[in-house]
Amino acid sequence: MTDTADKLPLAMLYERAERQPEDVYLRQPKDGHWHSFSWSQVLDQAARLVAGLYALGLEPEDKVALLSKNCAEWFICDFALQMGGFISVPIYPTAGADTVRYVLEHSESRAIITGKLDDPGIQEAGIPEGIIRIAMPYPSSLDCQHDWKTLLAHEPITLPPVPSPKQLMTIVYTSGSTGAPKGVMIDFGAFAAAAQGVVTTTALDKHDRVVSYLPLSHITERVYVLGSSLYSGMQVGFVQSLDTFISDVSHTSPTVFISVPRLWTNFRSGILNKLSQPKLDILLKIPFVSGLVKKKIRAGLGLKDARILGCGSAPVSPSLLRWYERLDMPITEAWGMTENLAYSTLNYPYRSDKVGTVGRRGVHVDIRISEQGEILCRCPGMMRGYYKQEDATQQVLQDGWLHTGDQGKLDGEGFLSITGRLKDAFKTAKGKYVLPVPIETRLAENALIEQSCVIGSGLAQPLALVQLADGVDLHHKGKIVEQLAATFEQINQQLESHQRLAGMLVMQAPWTIENDLMTPTLKIKRHLLEKKYAELDQVWPEGRVILWEEELDKAQ
């Protein structure tokens, strides 16, 4: 393969289809069977889809939305939209009707392509009249006027163009953790720079394999998987359903596996449900047995061939990373945001002594800390701006630097530590500011806790809302309270007086996308929890750990 420098994504697709036409690129499980797509087949289907879209009256620069879980057809649609000069607008497959309608109307999308959905009826009401509706070949797609088979019956377009680096490729809407989603405008050149940076940093090549299951509507999956597959030539497998997740991952046997803290936590809980921590500790001290246990755990997760394990999207506990490190499963933490295409810093090659940081800057990325402690980023893979929001664009893009809104610090080797979000800081009733993220990181050191949210705006002292990890045995409530109380006391001893927690409330109802307390990327909507529990301190027995909200009345 020739040098990929300065080549845009479509140029890489054309080149691979020409040089390795029969090599398998995408592998899609469907109805219990695996279907393979070669590079030449992917290009052919994309070229036919473009012709079909033109036949529907769509024109270059029209916005076309994508609403589907990950699948081979999502990739093909993305390539077709690039080839046709359309602007893609991905929508989270778990988005509610209100979000779907907002994104479609705000982006002025003329068409929407729908595919694999868990409950298509949820999104149906969000699609305005007059939008062209196209269905991927899945029974769970929405009812549409136009189907995949008919559109692909068109003759493929010839001499597909390569856009200019400054041409708008896509509008990616943020997950809306603090309000209405913003439309991040991304040019072809920026996308190419970020994807090439990932491949250069991690040395991905055509011998690698990856599973695509985190939402392609999120910039991380779009760059790290779809984008880097073009520049590396690696094979991409998909997942049929949640029920078949582990078996599908095992079938693909990825060499690269990227996940989020919540899933890594759930994996750990599943392992400890079968093998207690004390027993695991003993087995890991026996040389020969230790190796067998580690191999069995990796194989059980479908990760026996994985050479790169990644984690991002939300803060992860250093203790969780250390836990996996003992199993010879070093997890690379990375940091980025939609506005810089998720490619900013990585702890790769993995440095054990840098656990607790998010790594150092990637290729062609500059990072510095402002006088206010804010992380500033400058790189080729940066957004053009926010769609229809010039004022917001000017606030975050200043003199070529992206003002990330994250607070952090750099060590002597350039490794970055995130200390919180500027907008997450709250002022207690005592007039003191508190950064919740460092406290939440300490809470996550307790394996019983899967998620936490520290609130305190206007309260006398901060309070911790926590969710227990899957698999915690609720028959032993006394022991749970005892362990949480020990963590509570230990953390408070490390905090300044105005930061100390007044209490810890274990939530019985989960925070989910469905109840709107989490974004589609599994970030907690802190502002909604702050609002919901704004008066919690008025009924709180100071210094207590409380299991379940209904027990608050008993504790008073």
UniProtKB/TrEMBL annotation:
InterPro entries linked to this entry: AMP-binding_CS, AMP-dep_synth/lig_dom, ANL_N_sf
Keywords associated with the record: ATP-binding, Nucleotide-binding
Domain AMP-dependent synthetase/ligase: from-to ranges: 15-387
UniProt keyword GTP-binding present: no
ATP-binding keyword on record: yes
Protein name: Long-chain acyl-CoA synthetase
Organism: Oceanisphaera marina
